[in-house]
Amino acid sequence: MILFENIHSGKNNYLYCQTDKNLSFAEHTHFGYEFIAVQKGELVCTLFHTPMTLSAGKAMLILPNQIHSYETKEYSESFLCVFSPDIVEDFFRETNGEFFEVPVFDFHDDEKIEVLKNSSSNRFIVKSVLYYVCGRAFDSSKLQRRLTADPDFTYKLLYFVQENYAEDISLKLLSEKLGYNYTYLSRLFHKTFQCNFSEFIRGYRLERACDLLKTTDKSVARVAIDCGFHTIRNFNYAFSEKYHLTPTEYRKRESKKIT
Length: 259
Prior knowledge:
There is one protein chain. The chain has two domains: 3-145, Jelly Rolls (Sandwich), CATH 2.60.120.280; 164-258, Arc Repressor Mutant, subunit A. Helices cover 44% and strands 24% of the residues. The protein has helices at residues 89-95, 110-117, 123-140, 153-164, 171-178, 182-193, 197-215, 220-226, 232-243, 247-258; strands spanning 3-4, 15-21, 25-29, 33-47, 50-55, 58-62, 68-71, 76-83, 98-100, 104-106, 143-145. Strand 4 and strand 5 (50-55) form a beta hairpin. Helix 2 packs across helix 3.
């Protein structure tokens, strides 16, 4: 289930930092830039279906509205910073609508990381560090045009799905809401997500159902309805096909993990 994170949505002067051990996080996107630096171990960052392994001393700059996820397979220590485009306005203006071929670069400067960690740091020094990060990424990789001239395409699509997945939605409806030609949108969607829209929305609904089965006491029938399935039979079939368990069996298995 690919999430659009409203929290990290690029509000003016937005800056968020965290340090992690063994970071793992599902596919998501947001309006802000995301800088990730690995300090120990290895971390796999998947960017638009392409996995890249970051070892100690490597970093990556993820641009706004790019779908990404993290996975630690053994051990990692990392620093992560999300910041809004307006903080690096010149960089955003020059690169908006493009993406880095390989957004990985060397980064060994712990002093700059400490500046970002310190919330009381001089804002001008913070801005200079963020421009330094952007500059390192800019020097390390070629830029290419995105699949679409609309850099907000991914956000618009995911936000629409996130808000409407329980309703009857289709690619035709999506094309009307977003103002895209249907045939063009179909090709663009497949290039971006490596599947067709019906497969995507079914997978999104099933992953949302998993969350509800694990975190609520709603009946299976209620979960099915809340996640956009018209009948419990269709829900059970789709769920079992993907997870090789019925929804009831899945809930029992997950409850044992908690206890």
